[in-house]
Amino acid sequence: METKSTFSVTPAVQEAEKEVLKITRLSRTMYHRLALERYLGQEDPKINPKLLIRKKTDPRYVRKNAVEPVYLSEEHRAGLEMIAKRYDTNIGTVFLQALLEYTVIQTELLGI
Question: What is the pTM of this model?
């Protein structure tokens, strides 16, 4: 069963995702599933240290001003929670890392 959640992401990632979706004609839900499958399937998934900065006054803090609606399966949520615990962060940060990695790969493959 999937539950609907919302996560904060960067506007740049969200815009790049929209461009990829236009070209590939994937649904947003399928795109998120593929991003999560790829990320959670890694042997040792990493999180960019900049995404772990919580202090908004830090100049390296990544602003996440866009909201992304996401349908999460119980399996994906559990995977996100496991990684979040390891990095002492929340699942939204882990989701952003997964989405960021997948979107970068897709934009490179599609020449965007």
Answer: 0.95
Structural domain boundaries in the chain = 2-110
Sign of CA dihedral 4, 31, 74, 12: negative
* C-beta separation of 103 from 24 below 8 A: no
Give the number of other CB atoms < 10 A from CB of residue 73: 13
Single-letter amino acid code for the residue at 79: G
Which tens digit of pLDDT belongs to each residue from 27-76? 999 999 999 999 999 999 999 999 999 999 999 999 999 999 999 999 99
Q: What is the pLDDT of residues 70-107, one digit of tens each?
A: 999 999 999 999 999 999 999 999 999 999 999 999 99
Other Cβ atoms closer than 10 A to 71: 16
Q: Which residues contact 73 (CB under 8 A, 6 or more apart)?
A: 1, 2, 33
